[in-house]
Each structure stands twice: as C-alpha cells, then as structure tokens.
Amino acid sequence: MTSRTEVAAIIDHTLLKPEATPADVEALVSEAKDLGVLAICVSPSLLPVTDPGELVVATVVGFPSGQVKPEIKAAEAAQAVSDGADEVDMVINIGQAIASDFDAVEADIRGVVDASGSALVKVIVESAALSDDQIVQACRRAEAAGAGFVKTSTGFHPAGGASAHAVALMRETVGNRLGVKASGGIRSVEAAEEMIEAGASRLGLSGSAGILGGLSD
User: What class of enzyme is it (predicted)?
Assistant: First the structure.
C-alpha cells in the first residue's frame, strides 16, 4: 500500500463545479493545506487564489468540451498565468482527435504551451472517449508540442473518467519524459492505488480527504 504522504504529494485537490464560489475556493485552500497535498485546481474565473501558501495553483483551459478556437484557448491560458496559475490543464479538441486530425490537435496544444510561458501544461485527452490508437496519437502530439503532462479526463464526459488501462497506455507512450495525471471518478483508496500502479504521477481528486483518510504512513 502506498503511504499517505506519498499520495498527498501527487494530489491536485480539485474544485471545478460550475456553482463553485470564492468562499468554496477559500475552503479548498484551507483543506488542501491541512491535508498536505501538492496542488489545488480551480476554474479560471476563480483566479487569483488568495494566500495559496506553498500550494501549486492549477487551472483549466477549454474546459470541459475542448471545442474552443485555438486562439481563445491560448488567450485563456495567458490570462490564467497572469492571474497566478502555475499550471494549466487544457482540453484537446476531442472531435479533431476522433477525426484523426492530429496536426490540428498538436497546433492547438502548442498554442497553449507557448501562451503559458514557464507554467506547466497538462493535456487532457479525454481518454474514455477515444480509442487506444487515438490516445497514443494524442499523447505523442502533446509531447511534440512541448507539454509537460498528459491527463486522462475532465471528469465531465459521459463516456467516463480515468481507467488504469488508459493510464498504463499513456505511460507506455510517453515513458518517463512526461508526467501522467489520472483524474475523473477516482473516489476510493483502491482506485487511487490502481492508478498509481498503472503509472500515474499525479492524481486529480475532489474527494482527497476521504482517500487520504484511508491511508497511513
């Protein structure tokens, strides 16, 4: 079993509900500090975050559909970084991936990477909506475009969230060159450990307290 400290060190404590308020973000930050997690992830309209302390601040771009013009995604990323985001989790244009227009997918990612400056970019491929080959191609293009991570899911797609199969495939594709973030539907200690075993180096969780409460050092 993975230790509580080890798991906390790779958690993005996440609040992306459309009805989230600034007070909810304050509560998220307080809980994240108490839990000792690595990062928080909030919607871009809720930036800047007041007093994040040592927490990494992540936000989302083109979320959750990915069906946003590339120049809008890039502008959104630039604004988010200006507003204090350390990391940007962007959604690819899933339709382009399904249509095998991976040149467009790569260009979309590259625009966000360029606009994000020194901020880390994580690329959400929405793995449950793609075939294995499409997942592989999307990950390869994310790497080619300069992203630092690939990420399974938004958690909002009806096809589902993270799976150990997708995480393993993504890890196999990017090796140790990129990080792999598992997110979407991870609600138990067993699920979290399964994702880590499959190769996840970051976990996106909204129920961090419950999962960490089931672990010990």
Answer: lyase
